[in-house]
Amino acid sequence: MSTSATACLLRMYAEHHELEDYQSGVPRWCTGCGDNAILAALQRLCRDEELRPEKTVFVSGIGCSSRLPHYMHTYGFHGIHGRALPIAEGIKMARPDLHVFVNTGDGDCCSIGAAHWIHAIRYNMNLTVVLHDNQIYGLTKKQASPTSPIGTQSNTTPRGSYLEALNPLTVTLGVQNVSFVAQAVDWIPEALYAILSAAFHHKGLSFVRVLQRCPEWLPNAFDPWMHDPSRLLLLNHERGMTLSPSLARVYKNQLEHDPGDLDRAREIASSTDPIPVGILYHNPAVPCYEDLRHAGQARTTEMIGRGLDAELDKFTVWPEGVDVTLPVAS
Ligand SMILES: Cc1ncc(C[n+]2csc(CCOP(=O)(O)OP(=O)(O)O)c2C)c(N)n1
Ligand code: SF4
Ligand SMILES: [Mg+2]
Question: How far is 234 from 253, CA to CA, in rounded Å?
Answer without folding.
Answer: 6
